[in-house]
């Protein structure tokens, strides 16, 4: 199926009321059609992996077409140049999250980009860096605990970020890394406690640290970690 045919399918999947719902969630709807993500996933399963189609869909500039592109692209063919080009087009938090969760974490440059992007100034690439950290913690079963140590200084650096969409990415990274293993849980709790220093930390960092500590100490998380290590 070529990009024109897929775009026809996307237009047919538009549902009334979706655009206002997206806008309510803070999603940029300027170039959106109004197709819900579950419908995009169904279409992606039908299409399968098709990297040329993914590139063509991204070039349309349509919000849902770009999310679909992240679902059908071949991660083995996604290099640093492609990641940078798509990151430069990010214009909404959900597009960032979908690209990282569906595709970017599987690409070879993911670990390097996580750190590099987290140090960027622009909202969406910066968020993408931390979302990549979170999705790597969630999905990369082959990575050892040491691989995540490099992420903690970036998390500590930006925990007080004033931009809500960026700070939520930082929080997600800290909490997801801390759920990965008992060792990383202890390290993440150490970071969370340090962020609550009333003298040296901002109120934003304090709140982030407190919320992360509560979740990482919860019986739900601790029970899962005990089960995973037994």
From TrEMBL:
This is DNA alkylation repair protein. PANTHER family: DNA ALKYLATION REPAIR PROTEIN. Transmembrane segments: none annotated. It comes from the Bacteria. CDD domains: AlkD_like. Pfam families: DNA_alkylation (PF08713).
């Amino acid at each position: 199926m070529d990009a024109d045919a897929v775009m026809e399918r996307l237009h047919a999947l538009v549902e009334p009321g979706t655009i206002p719902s997206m806008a309510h969630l803070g999603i940029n709807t300027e170039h959106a059609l109004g197709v819900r993500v579950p419908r995009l996933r169904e279409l992606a399963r039908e299409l399968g992996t098709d990297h040329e189609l993914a590139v063509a869909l991204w070039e349309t500039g349509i919000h849902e077409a770009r999310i679909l592109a992240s679902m059908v692209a071949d991660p083995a063919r996604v290099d640093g140049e492609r990641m940078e080009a798509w990151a430069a087009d990010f214009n909404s938090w959900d597009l960032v999250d979908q690209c990282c969760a569906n595709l970017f974490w599987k690409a070879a440059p993911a670990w390097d980009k996580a750190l590099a992007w987290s140090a960027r100034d622009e909202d969406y690439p910066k968020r993408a860096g931390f979302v990549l950290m979170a999705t790597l913690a969630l999905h990369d079963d082959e990575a050892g605990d040491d691989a995540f140590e490099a992420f903690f200084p970036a998390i500590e650096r930006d925990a007080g970020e004033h931009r809500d969409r960026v700070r939520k990415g930082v929080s997600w990274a800290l909490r997801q890394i801390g759920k990965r293993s008992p060792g990383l849980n202890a390290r993440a709790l150490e970071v969370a406690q340090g962020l609550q220093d009333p003298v040296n930390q901002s109120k934003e960092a304090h709140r982030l640290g407190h919320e992360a500590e509560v979740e990482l100490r919860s019986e739900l998380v601790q029970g899962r970690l005990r089960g995973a290590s037994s």
